[in-house]
Amino acid sequence: MNPTFRVEPLSPDRDRSDFKCGSEPLDRYFRQQVTQDIRRRVTACFVAVVTASDQIAGYYTLASASVSLPDLPADLAKKLPRYPSIPAVRMGRLAVAERFKGLGLGSGLLADALARALRAEIAAYALIVDAKDDAAVAFYERHGFIPLASQERTLFLPLSAALLEK
């Protein structure tokens, strides 16, 4: 039977010491640095928690960002105001604990991040992601993300496209 999850903001008292996703930088960040970044207001972190056991199964971070207009594909850029940059939301990290991989949790966390960006009262044109490797690039491309022209592993999805999928 597949576990059920709830997604909530990371609370400072939640134990993160045994989280392992298979990527040491993502694990180290989550165990040692994320609460400092939250306190400094440079990121927000959301965790997927197993409903039955209250165990953390995955996490992602969100922060404000901007996209340089010339980095966008010309067909999209021509529809936007001629500002030097366009507001966006950056999902800087997305990780699923090893024991919960293959259950669709990564896609679920991505959908949750898109929903939060769409509900935000501050305008943003797109959700930007930083893919750590080719497998991550493929994951985001399967979800409709488009690579930025100047940054090989940075991809974006216009939030208007996410609205259409709902």
Describe this structure in words.
By secondary structure, this protein is α+β, with helices and mostly antiparallel strands. Helices cover 31% and strands 30% of the residues. The chain is built from five helices and seven strands. It has a seven-stranded mixed beta sheet with strand order 1-2-3-4-5-7-6, sandwiched between helices. The radius of gyration is 16 Å and the shape is globular. The two termini are 27 Å apart. The mean pLDDT is 92.
What structural keywords apply?
166 residues, alpha+beta, seven-stranded mixed sheet, globular, 7 strands, 5 helices
Question: How many extended strands?
Answer: 7
* Mean pLDDT across residues: 92
**What is the overall number of helices?**
5
What summary fits the major beta sheet?
7 strands, mixed
Distance between the termini: 27 Å
What percentage of amino acids are in beta strands? 25-35%
Low-confidence residue ranges: none
CA-based shape? globular
- Rounded to the nearest angstrom, the radius of gyration is 16 Å
Strand order of the largest sheet: 1-2-3-4-5-7-6
**Class based on secondary structure composition and strand pairing:** alpha+beta
